[in-house]
Design goal:
Number of domains of chain A: 2
Low-confidence stretches of chain A: none
CATH class of the largest domain in chain A: Mainly Alpha
Strand content of chain A: 5-15%
Number of strands of chain A: 4
Radius of gyration of chain A: 17 Å
Distance between the termini of chain A: 24 Å
Oligomer: homodimer
Number of helices of chain A: 9
CATH architecture of the largest domain in chain A: Up-down Bundle
Mean pLDDT of chain A: 95
Largest sheet of chain A: 4 strands, mixed
């Protein structure tokens, strides 16, 4: 398998974690998001993934765009260890948490959005940082409320086994910390992230441990 | 089942389509997104769905947040008719298209984001409309490129059976039309949307046919 990604992309980071958890080896291909106006806009990459976004997973003849679609694919084709619970209610809970991060936080803080704020709306760095922190605070506060005191929350987001909820949460929290977001009111999230980062599969996926890290 | 939604919410619209396609009856509960500062922020609703976003599906004792998580749940628990193909590659393609809409377009044009642009960044109506159209144009152009000329594209996004890709696309195109986006370069999308809207399950889910339509 080949993973087209970028060390700092939290969407690629999700996929790296899942590949590591499932013990799948892969070739990492760096798509630099800023060099030369962004290698994700190059014609060759667009042929692979018309969205011009990363990551893309290539498995044999198949190219898959969108990290959540990639994670569901990996879960179907490489089911062990499972990253979704076996019951429909548990699967719904894990996907709700994962999608709350994938849809409600991450897309708002993507590089292309920050670039639009800067160039089209003339938002200065302070305004862009406030935007970034606002959506993380709103989004992670909601995730904390989904987790705190819920009977299914365990050592990890859902029970005592790692799930896709954890796979999505850890990269989002890494972004939050990079932008100095206040996580003091999110004790459940920070506790779970610490559990995750103690695992080798998560540690090997860290941005600073990627070959293209700067 | 109960669906907490709002006639104009395209995320709720997705769920209405899927419930109709699967022949599931449900009680529609309107959560007015603007009345009284937004009923989605009321304490009772936040107990049901801490994200303060719609929709929420209630099925027996289970509350599910996030439209994509709801759609996956419905697919697992009420599998007929299937809204995902039977092969992993096909499922990956359908989920890629669906997530390209759910993640790359819709979250950027949500009401709360438009409100932030207005109140925090002082973006006027023209700037907000340009923002709205920009992300739709970028996002749907990518979806058009994923569909046009692809051997798996048929009468619908994936072959000749309706899938989650269509379920996501139709509400997004309805939003695009409400904001007068130019869809002239997206002939595959507009052809498929026309096919979909000719079906009763899609027609009954239209915003203007909901009991809370204004």
């Amino acid at each position: 398998m080949k993973l087209y990604g970028y060390f700092r992309s939290s969407a690629a980071y999700r996929v790296r974690i899942a590949l590591n958890l499932k013990g799948l080896s892969y070739e990492s291909i760096s798509v630099h998001l800023q060099k030369g106006g962004g290698q994700q806009h190059a014609a060759d990459y667009l042929k692979l993934n018309p969205t011009g976004l990363i990551p893309t997973l290539v498995d044999g003849q198949l190219n898959i765009a969108q990290s959540m679609a990639i994670l569901e694919y990996l879960e179907e084709v490489y089911p062990e260890p499972a990253l979704l619970p076996s019951d429909a209610a548990g699967r719904a809970r894990v996907r709700s948490i994962a999608q709350a991060i994938a849809c409600d936080i991450h897309p708002l803080n993507n590089l292309r959005v920050l670039q639009y704020l800067k160039h089209e709306l003339n938002a200065d760095e302070a305004a862009r940082d406030a935007w970034y922190r606002h959506w993380i605070d709103r989004g992670l506060s909601a995730v904390e409320a989904m987790l705190a005191g819920h009977p299914s929350t365990g050592k990890f987001c859902h029970g005592d086994r790692v799930s896709l909820a954890d796979v999505l949460m850890v990269p989002q929290v890494a972004n939050a910390r990079r932008f100095d977001c206040d996580l003091s009111k999110m004790p459940t999230i920070t506790r779970i992230v610490e559990e995750c980062n103690a695992l080798d599969a998560f540690a090997r996926a860290l941005p600073e441990r990627q070959p293209d890290a700067e």
